[in-house]
Every structure is written in C-alpha cells, then in structure tokens.
Amino acid sequence: MASHDVTRLKAHEMAALLRSGETSSRGLTEAHLAAAERQNRALHAWLVIDRTGALEQADKADRRLAEARKAGRQALDALHPLCGVPVGLKDLVSVKGGQATAGSKILEGYVAPFDSTVTARLREAGAVILGKTNMDEFAMGSSCEHSAFGPTANPWDLSRVPGGSSGGSAAAVAAFHTPLAIGTDTGGSIRQPASLCGIVGMKPTYGRVSRYGIVAFASSLDQIGPFGRDTRDAALLLHAVAGHDRRDATSAPVEVPADLLHLPEGDDEAAAYLKGRRIALPREYFVAGMEPGVAARVREAVAAMEQAGAHVEEVSLPHTDYGLAAYYIIAPAEASSNLARYDGVKYGYNDRSSGDYIADYLKTRGAGFGPEAKRRIMLGTYALSAGYYDAYYLKAQKVRTLIKGDFDSVWAAGFDAICAPVSPTVAFKLGAKVDDPVAMYLSDTCTLPLNMAGLPGLSIPAGLSDGLPVGLQMIGSPWSELSMLRLARAYEGITARAPWRDLDPAELSLTDDPSTPSPMDRKRAIAAAGAPGRQA
C-alpha cells in the first residue's frame, strides 16, 4: 500500500485530515471516483457513479470546512465528522433526481422525486454521495447475483460472490472505492456481505433508522445500516443517519447516543471494555454443514475475548431451527403486498404493446420482475390466500414471538451480548447456489433470527479460512448499538496485531487489468459450461 493512497485511509482518519486542512474533500472524492471508475468493470459494485454530483458536493464540503476553520475550534467541532467524506448508497435509497432501481428492471428509468431521510441526513452532515451500488433485486438474495443488471464479484476472489443483497456496497468498501456505504438488512443483507468481504457491517435495532424513501421488501423486517472498514467508521455513519423521523411510522423516538462519535482510539483502552462482560455462545448457531474453518475462527475469536477478561457461557436458543421456515413465510408475504404497486402504470418499466390493460399489466410484471422476485411474490401470495393465512402466515408470526422470547431470556439472564457465526460458509462461487433456492436461503440461517426479533447485530472481521474472510456476529439487546460497537472495538483492540488485519483483498489488483473478465462474463461462462460453479 502506497503511503500517499488516500483511499486506504479509514473514514475517521479522512475526517481528521479534512478538519486540519491537510487534504480536501475534492481530493478524496477524485481519488475514490478514479478507483471506482477504473475497477468497476471487473467488480460491478456500482450501478451509477455520479462524478459530477459528487464533485459538486465535495466542493460544497470544502467551503463548509474552510469557513469552520476560519471561525475556530468550536465551529469545526460543530461539523459532523463525515463532512467531506465519501459514501456509497445501495440502489434502493431515494436520491432526488437520481435512479432507485432496487436492482430490478421494473424500476428501470424511475427517477426519485425526493430524498430519503437517510440521504437528507447525509447531505446535512456534508457527506459526499459517490453513487448507487449494485444489489439483489428488491433486496432478495444472499449473493448479489439476482440483480437485473448483472452480478457483483468479491474482491478477495473474483470468481466468488460478495454476499447479498447489499453486495455492491460491501464490495465497494472492501475494494477501497469508498470508505463507507449504506446497505439494508432484511434477513442478513448487511451482515452476510460484510462477513464475506472482510469489513464491518451493522444492522441496527428495528426503528433506529428511518425507512422513509427506501424501496421496501418486507416492511416489518427491513432496516438500514452502515458498512465501514472498522467499527469507528461504522459508528460515525450510524450516528449520521439514525434518529426518529415523523414520516416513518415505524421509526422509534429513541435518542441517538452521542458517544457513537467517541469510540476509543487506543487499542488498549478499547480492549479494557471486555473485562467482566458476559457473552453468550448459542449452540444452535453452529449449524450442520458449517465449514470447519468458519466455526474455528468464530470460536477462536470468542476465546480471545474470554482471555481478555470476558465471561463466556454456552446458551440455548431453542426456536432457532424454526426461524428459516418462519422467515420465508413472513418475508415473501410482506413482499407480495409491497411489490403489488409495480404495475407499469405509475412509474418504472412498462409494456403497453397490446393495448389491453390486463394483458399489458401481466406482461409488464412478467418481464419486469426477475425469477427470485417472482418466486417470493408467489410464495407470499399463497401464504396470505384464503384458507392458508392461519395455517402459514399466522403460525409463522407465532414462531416469531417464540424466537424473540429466546433472546429475551438471554438478556434477562444478564448477558451483555451474544456471539455467533454470520454465515455458515466463506464466499461461495458465482453460480454455485443460484439454481438452488433452498441452499441459497440456508446462507441466512445465522442472521435472520435477529430481523425476526428486531434486534441489532453486526459482523466484524475475525480472520480468514482458506484465504477468505470470516465474520464474527455480535448480537445485542434492543437499542444497544453503542455497547455492541464498543465490544466490537474491543475485539479490534485485542486483534490489532493479527497479520490478517493488514491484508488487502487478494484479487483486488486484478481489477486494474482491463482484460479481467467481468462478473457477467463469468456468469455467461458458467451458463455455457452447463453447470453451476462448484463451491469450494
């Protein structure tokens, strides 16, 4: 890594340089735009790179910073640390005048007429929005292969997936295209790609971040959250976007902790937080079929925390095994309702070739939605249909209550956090699971219970297995994001000298070569071979 390469800096390091005047937001933005534009063909992490808009925002941030420096320390301190810092948005976040396709053909051509609350708060903070990142269609997927605009590759191994559905955001952060990005998590779609790409990703408590202006998948499960390359960066981004919003009925009137901006800088200070913490290790999360290397890294991480002063106890969350089935009734049911609005009449893609309203409606939805979206719409419509609502949807909601009760019993027992795997596997090959929906759904086994219970959770890098990243999942009680981030920062502190912490993604350098195949090229090659990629 060249010492002058500003894209390798953490967001909080960029913030310090911006405040001191040692660098400019325009300089940071131009460096990140250059990397994204140069490497996006091989990664396909971005659907839109907004060079013009980003540079305008950077110049505005530079003016704000210059004025604050002239006014003195108090004025500088009043600026949010993200002023002038680049960020990427998953392409279901509304940005006025820009696209919000949600990875679907049916929203191709749609131009958002307003900013989402997340976008507005980032603008208020002075962050620089670089563009929109790729994603699984309507956030439905665990691999970022279900985008209507082609898959995204993992910079650790370009033949593998980055995880989904927020795979574009995770890959962009891991590849140093942006220090920060926004994702959404309905069943693990922030934590799982964070794990597979070796970065930090957090799903906040349901209601912590406004969903206003976010294209919905499953409204009782969706939550917006941050990606960063360390916990301090994730905390800065969460602080900027969190908080009550009267325009979102599910937004909670809970104060955002100011100390999100003040996680410990020193590793020793951070590590001291572990002393006396009670950590639960749920036996049900070490599922059958989990790769031995994944289980080993997670247990090693927990053992390291125990050695540093935490108390670790094994617990049981007995209804975990029912979570996957319940989730894949509730989520598709809510999706079938939310996606009913896409009819080709009001906005987005339409096919009006026949002149017959009903025929055109059917053709629009048939061509506009991809296979995974159609699958979930049909599953959800069936679960909500007359005669099946009680047998499926209502029963799944009762299971959801039982899952929440399992977590409540852990908090009642006095535990500070739960630690578990994020994904049963490291990043798998492009095409390995795309034709086997059940195998793909099993990727979310360890993450979706949190969405069912509305709890906060994060993924933090915990080493490598066969040269690929493994994430450690930390789960907290409602509204405990600050204590979770402190715990994660403590883990960073005790592993600060681990050799894997200084590694760049193994195949990132290949993305600079214009002859490197794109993810779509690889997908076509797999299809031409007549067989899906084989999981290592």
What is the gist of this entry?
40% of the residues lie in helices and 11% in strands. It has 536 residues and is an alpha/beta fold. The chain has one domain (8-262, 274-321, 400-526): Amidase signature (AS) enzymes (Alpha-Beta Complex), CATH 3.90.1300.10.
Task: Characterize the structure shown.
The protein has 536 residues and is α/β, with parallel strands linked by helices. The chain has one domain: Amidase signature (AS) domain (Amidase signature (AS) enzymes). It is built from 18 helices and eleven strands. Helix 8 packs antiparallel against helix 17. It starts with 10 loop residues before the first helix and ends in a 7-residue tail after the last helix.
Residues in helix, %? 25-40%
Query: How far is it from the N-terminal to the C-terminal residue, by CA?
Result: 29 Å
What is the CATH third-level topology name? Amidase signature (AS) enzymes
Helical/strand content category:
alpha/beta
Shape: globular
- How many helices? The count is 18
In percent, how much strand structure appears in the residues? 5-15%
N-to-C SSE series? HHEHHEHEHEHEEHHEHEHHHHEHHEEHH
Strands in their spatial order, largest beta sheet: 1-3-2-4-6-5-10-11-9-7-8
Largest sheet: 11 strands, mixed
Number of strands: 11
Radius of gyration: 22 Å
Question: How many domains would you count in the coordinates?
Answer: 1
Which stretches are low in confidence, meaning pLDDT under 50 for 5 or more residues running?
Answer: 532-536
CATH class: Alpha Beta
The CATH superfamily is known as Amidase signature (AS) domain
Mean pLDDT: 95
